[in-house]
Design brief:
Layout (H helix, E strand, L loop, with lengths): L1 H10 L3 H20 L5 E10 L5 E12 L3 E3 L1 H10 L3 H21 L6 E5 L2 H5 L3 H12 L6 E6 H6 L3 H11 L2 E7 L6 H6 L4 E4 L1 H5 L6 H13 L3 E4 L5 H9 L4 E2 L10 H12 L8
Parallel strand pairs: 2-4, 4-5, 5-6, 6-7, 7-8, 8-9
Antiparallel strand pairs: 1-2, 1-9, 2-3
Helix pairs in contact: 4-6
The structure holds ligand C2E and magnesium ion (3 copies).
Protein name: Bifunctional diguanylate cyclase/phosphodiesterase
Organism: Virgibacillus sediminis
């Protein structure tokens, strides 16, 4: 008897698994139409210089809101976009959206060093990526030096010719940051050779500051600085984390302590509050 049951379990899905499969199928069906139905939007999170307290830029983060499903988290729908091959058109849409937004901010007198956009390994492996990127910059008339592409440490390790890919991006004139740093196993001698501008320390290390994780964060800051990268801490949520990072001369930070990701109008307001204030920078 037990044997037949085991056999059944092997052949059929449990009700829970069926529900999960149903949900994934539903999401995929809706995701295929999301771009044309204008269900995607971009939110922006301020990047703060920890020495001057000025807002030096934003990270653009994709959002998907479907009338029936509501808001689906990026960690769920981005892997799906990648599996469905949709990350290429959607990624292109994000780049266009962010470049034109950055241009429009500049026209309003909102001048930031950079707009940072996440790119997936699939986009980077796409032969026409560099050419299309140039086209987007030309069409939106944004100077390439204002755009930064965020590439995770995992992606750097995944793509065979990372070094050539990054070099071709640098030729276009965009900046490059390495995202979620510390979560992969890249060799430092290899990293040193790559044309990287900013190293973004993964949030998990910043979380650990509350549990005796200072040593590791401190080490990563020193590694980044020795490699001549700008170092940014992701996911700063508390004043204690901020004070520690500032003391360790971490260059930049982002996180809920400063602001959650917000829409473009709110960014303009935050910029005016932070960068146009007459207060001298905190020491
Ligand atoms: P990421 O690039 O590491 O982005 C940082 C994530 O941390 C964002 O999550 C942001 O909302 C969140 N975050 C920032 N500060 C805090 C904080 O203080 N506390 C907490 N708990 N979270 C914080 P989000 O927006 O859910 O994005 C998740 C991931 O999805 C991103 O991680 C990125 O890998 C990916 N992603 C988002 N937008 C895009 C996109 O346009 N293209 C691609 N390829 N990936 C994207
Ligand atoms: Mg990122
Ligand atoms: Mg990150
Ligand atoms: Mg992260």
């Amino acid at each position: 008897h037990a044997k037949t049951q085991g056999g059944n379990q092997f052949c059929f899905n449990t009700p829970n698994q069926n529900m999960e499969i149903q949900r994934i199928y539903q999401l995929e069906m809706k995701l295929r139409k999301a771009l044309e139905n204008r269900e995607f939007s971009v939110v922006y999170q301020p990047l703060i210089n920890l020495t001057t307290n000025q807002m030096v830029g934003i990270e653009a983060l994709l959002r998907w809101n479907n009338p029936e499903l509501g808001t689906v988290p990026p960690n769920e729908f981005i892997p799906m976009l990648e599996n469905l091959g949709l990350i290429i058109p959607v990624g292109k849409w994000v780049l266009y959206e962010v470049c034109s937004q950055m241009k429009s901010w500049q026209e309003q007198g909102i001048i930031m060093e950079r707009a940072s956009v996440n790119v997936s390994p699939i986009q980077l492996r796409d032969k026409s990526f560099a050419w299309e990127l140039k086209e987007i910059l030309a069409e939106t008339q944004l100077d390439a030096s204002y755009l930064e592409l965020e590439i995770t440490e995992g992606t750097i390790l995944q793509i065979k010719d990372s070094s050539d890919t990054l070099s071709s991006l640098k030729e276009i004139g965009v900046k490059v940051s390495i995202d979620d740093f510390g979560t992969g196993y890249s060799s430092l001698s290899y990293l040193k050779k790559l044309p990287i501008d900013t190293l973004k320390i993964d949030k998990s290390f910043i979380d650990d500051l509350d549990a005796d994780g200072e040593f590791l964060v401190n080490t990563i800051i020193h590694i980044g600085k020795n490699l001549k990268f700008k170092v940014l801490a992701e996911g700063i949520e508390s004043i204690n984390q901020l004070l520690y990072l500032r003391e360790q001369k971490c260059n930049e930070g982002q996180g809920y302590f400063f602001s959650k990701p917000v829409n473009q109008e709110e960014i303009a307001l935050i910029y005016q509050q932070i960068n146009r204030s007459d207060l001298p920078p905190r020491k």
